[in-house]
């Protein structure tokens, strides 16, 4: 086992689409990869998972057993996942795969902010767990939205204390000038600060600046990797980031 990648991010940020595309890229480059769906509430997926938590934990069953609506059932199901870690890990290990990609719940809070999830990452990922935080371009294209995503990413990092990478999804949907702005903000704090000041209404400017300063002082920002699932763009950079975290930068053996 080389790496366990847990894909997290806000709803609509492209987690499942990224998971499908990254597995496609890995297979094309002859890297043995397994996908695990950890979202019991997923209606449909853009890939066929090798392992699917819905096979052992159904949202409908949780609703029926606990007398809950869909939202409450998703919260309970997120905690009940911990009861199936032995089974999930046994099945994952049976593949003897170098890479495992875990597609997490659609709503960020159902994975990042449940006590069971830290246990899941520790148990399934062991010492080879890494987080991939997805930046939704619809939010990232404004300075305040970009800083909000930085704050969310930092919060997830502090929840799990694992290596992590920040990924900008769906870049093929962005105009060139918008993508250039996002790239500049991700590489130059001064550019981001200036854009944030210019973008902030007077009454919120001080708050936004203080949030920015807190993030800057914590030095939590990592390189933002732009990706496009449609064009299979950016995935080599993600693979390289995984190498650097777990393979000391050496080219990992292909199966």
UniProtKB/TrEMBL annotation:
Residues spanning the signal sequence: none
Domain of life: Archaea
Keywords: GTP-binding, Hydrolase, Nucleotide-binding
Pfam family of the protein (one): ATP_bind_1
RNA-binding is among the record's keywords: no
Single Gene Ontology MF annotation: GTP binding
InterPro entries: Gpn, P-loop_NTPase
Record family assignment: Belongs to the GPN-loop GTPase family.
UniProt name for this protein: GTPase
Species this chain originates from: uncultured euryarchaeote Alv-FOS1
Top-level taxonomy: Archaea, Methanobacteriati, Methanobacteriota, environmental samples
């Amino acid at each position: 086992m080389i790496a366990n990648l847990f894909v997290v991010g806000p709803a609509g940020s492209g987690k499942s689409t990224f998971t499908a595309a990254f597995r496609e890229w890995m297979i094309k480059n002859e890297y043995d990869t397994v996908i695990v769906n950890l979202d019991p509430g997923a209606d449909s997926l853009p890939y066929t998972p090798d392992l699917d938590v819905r096979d052992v934990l159904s949202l409908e069953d949780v609703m029926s057993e606990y007398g809950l609506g869909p939202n409450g059932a998703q919260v309970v199901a997120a905690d009940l996942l911990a009861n199936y870690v032995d089974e999930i890990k046994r099945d994952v290990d049976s593949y003897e795969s170098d890479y495992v990609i875990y597609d997490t719940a659609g709503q960020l809070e159902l994975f990042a902010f449940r006590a069971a999830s830290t246990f899941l990452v520790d148990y399934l990922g062991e010492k080879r767990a890494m987080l991939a935080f997805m930046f939704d371009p619809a939010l990232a294209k404004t300075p305040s939205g970009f800083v909000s995503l930085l704050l969310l990413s930092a919060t997830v990092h502090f929840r799990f204390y694992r290596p992590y990478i920040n990924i900008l999804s769906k870049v093929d949907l962005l105009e060139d000038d918008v993508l250039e702005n996002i790239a500049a903000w991700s590489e130059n704090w001064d550019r981001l600060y200036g854009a944030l000041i210019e973008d902030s209404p007077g009454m919120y400017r001080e708050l936004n600046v203080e949030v920015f300063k807190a993030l800057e002082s914590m030095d939590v920002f990592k390189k933002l990797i732009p990706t496009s699932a449609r064009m299979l763009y950016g995935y080599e950079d993600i693979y390289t980031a995984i190498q650097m975290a777990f393979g000391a930068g050496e080219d990992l053996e292909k199966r």
